[in-house]
Amino acid sequence: MYRAKTMRAEPKVLLQPTGVKVWPDKTDGKEQLEPAHSLSSQTWRRKQRRVTVGLPTHRMLSIGQLLAGVAWAWAVGLLLFLAWWRPHLGMTGGATGLGMMVGVLYTYLYYKNIKSKQQYQQVLSMDPGLKGCQYLLGTLPSWINYTEREKMEWFNRMLAEMWPYYDSGICGIIKATLEPIIEYYRPATFKKISFEELTFGEAPFRVEGIAVRDLPGEIDMEVDVRWCGDANISIAIDLPVGGEFTRLTPKVKDIVFVATFKVMFRPLVDKIPGFAAVAVAFKGPPIIKYRLDFGAVPSTVTSVMTAPIRAFVDMIINMIVGWYLWPSRLTVPLLSWDGWLPANDPDVDLEVERLYGRPKGIIRVHVIQAKDLKAYDTVGKSDPFVELFTAKEDVRTTRVISNSLKPEWNEVKYLPVLEKDTVLRLEMFDYDAVNLTSFAGLKNMASLEGGREFMGRAGISLSQFITEEGLEDELWLPLGKGEWTNLQGPGQGEGWIKLGLQYRALDNIAGDEILHATQGLLMVTVIRCYELSDSSKQSSYVAVKLEPADKADKAEGKKASYKQSGKTSTMVRNHSPRWSTQNKFTLYDVSAKDMLLVSVMEPAMAIDDELGRVSIAVHDVIQHCQVSRWTKEEDAGYIYEEFPIGEKSGKARIELELEFLPYW
Question: Are the CB atoms for 431 and 385 separated by under 8 Å?
Fold first, then answer.
């Protein structure tokens, strides 16, 4: 027979599901399940003691506690040993000193270890983010979407709340800015053009992303903006006859606007708001699409008027985009002599002036030839010519090659380069003796002369030539009719053009090269005038003109498309006016034999009155050496001084900055 064994009751350990804790029942001692997040269970837990399961508990000693115990045991044992041994006093002192040194060393190592652990814990507790993970791991998993641009949803939500106020302010600025420009460029076929209604509706602009670069002394941002909404924009167009009965009010609908803005805060200062000026520009040509809706106007009228009106609107849009297309920019000084508050610092004023745009170098463009062009003339081939520019205010034009599909120009043009990421753009046109293609957009009968038809465009980044300064390379560029906004560029299929390119920085142009130059660029900056008259109500502007020495050069200068003259804005009620740093003029193909004429004029109803003038020989500018305020070194071909202009008043003076840059 088998004897039954006495079974000892063992404590039971229940495996509990996640989120559920087991607590004894208050009435019958049975266990019941309650959710871990139950408020009643948490309150009851604070009032009752936890039921102790019959499992043994052990106390764990840390390494620090164990070492402390060993140290105390060693100290007690050492004292007992010394009491038994009774060594010599000197030996005891030496051993005590050695022990203290060892103790101090141990204490230093102990606290250094604690501090190191705290630093490691602080670093490990930080959230590295996507960029930190990429830096630590070298790469990111494919399921993580990494981008340099940060999302701005918080800003879009804030903008949506404030949009009604921003809409009113933006529309007011656009109307005040555009209507004078529209009136100035208004074709003679229209009596008046103005905005009848202007609002962008309820949908605000959206900031899709932003990228920030923190550079020494400045902050650069790239902001991606998109807008597509139901705007209410009506243009009132009055015809020469009929008054309101013949007024056209086309509506601009289905507007799409996509652009990347480049925003620069420079220089950084230790005063509120932390920067002295801000500059804004289009990083690249924006995407602007729209549709004109004439409403109930008969189709016969819309078919005739749509083309000239759209051509005029496109001209205004392209002109405004060209003004602010990088490297051109809109600069707003905040802390400067012409800003909201004076900086009282010449170095800050100079950096603000540099932000307006100062050339860093010159690109030499050799327009060699073109091939595979298409015929655009009804009878014959084409009469192509090329326009080149790095910024819209500096456009150089080649001569017209008549009746050719393989023209050879072999002309060299020089253009200023403002930034390292500048793009050289060129457009080719077919010259027409009579401007019939844009007849409806003509301002007067003189505009009938010299029409043109678009043949293609091309562009190339100058970053490689700027990096490898002095590199001279010839290359073929395809011509296409695509927009600058296309990701692949203007495209191809309209022919090819061959260019030779070479870049030189201003800092690397030697003084001897300037002193022996015979031709180059002349940059003229009008700073201010002094004591033009005794009246404080004096109004004035400055006219700059280049007078070629030879008669042949004078005749060629009249035909040149580039500006050989210019004038500043008019300063009202100021007998000692100071112009902003935007009043700079670049004169091309300047010969050492030419003369620079600078006249101070008083605006009048009929003929402006001359207050004074100064004539400066270009040869004197070339041979003049002076410490430049830009480089802080003595440069050849540089003048910064005051010139007497007194004709009506012997005290009148004008302050000019002249800088000559040689061709090579």
Answer: yes
